[in-house]
Design goal:
Elements (H helix, E strand, L loop, with lengths): L13 E7 L6 E7 L5 E3 L8 E7 L5 E7 L3 E8 L5 E8 L2 E7 L5 E8 L2 E8 L5 E2 L7 E6 L6 E6 L3 E6 L3
Antiparallel strand pairs: 1-2, 2-3, 4-5, 5-6, 6-7, 8-9, 9-10, 10-11, 12-13, 13-14
Length: about 170
């Protein structure tokens, strides 16, 4: 089976990463089949956009990513079979640091930076996004732990500390 990227859907290993082409200044996500070294572009957009922080969904069918514009950051997904993109959240005047899929694949957690605050935000595939109150100062780079129960975050308060967030 092959999807529209030309990469076999059942043949891993693949590598998905941001790539800045020589012909323009845009940064797009590409997928590279490590067996054949073949590379295909996954995302397309305006030349001023930058696509970053790709994360493969637990089922391997979708990539979550951040699209940075001049004045906003979008939390997006791209379907690997169709290359259709979907905006899950538009966050004006904000930057984002890190994106991680929930273990059940129902959404992503992103680290948002607004003015003097940084916090994780739950962004579901269906429903409304909500800020996660983790009771830590300046939280960045959320990542689910390997056992997939806890969310790990980087908390910055005069030094950088890795913290474990438990609960819902």
């Amino acid at each position: 089976d092959r999807d529209v990227t030309g990469v076999q859907t059942c043949a891993l290993p693949i590598l998905i990463f941001p790539y800045r082409g020589l012909e323009d200044n845009s940064e797009r996500l590409v997928v590279q089949d490590l067996a054949t070294n073949r590379r295909r572009q996954l995302t397309f957009g305006r030349s001023s956009d930058e696509d970053a922080a790709p994360a493969l969904s637990p089922d391997g069918r979708t990539v979550g990513f951040l699209r940075r514009h001049f004045d906003q950051t979008d939390v997006m997904t791209v379907d690997l079979a169709t290359l259709r993109t979907r905006v899950l959240l538009r966050e004006p005047n904000a930057a984002a640091g890190g994106l991680s899929w929930s273990p059940d694949g129902r959404g992503v957690v992103v680290g948002l930076v607004r003015q003097a605050a940084a916090f994780p935000m739950w962004v579901p595939l269906e429903g409304s996004p909500k800020e996660l109150n983790v009771k830590l100062p300046f939280v960045l780079n959320p990542v689910f732990a390997t056992h997939r129960k806890d969310l790990m975050v980087l908390s910055v308060n005069r030094s950088r500390n890795l913290a474990q967030v438990t609960g819902d």
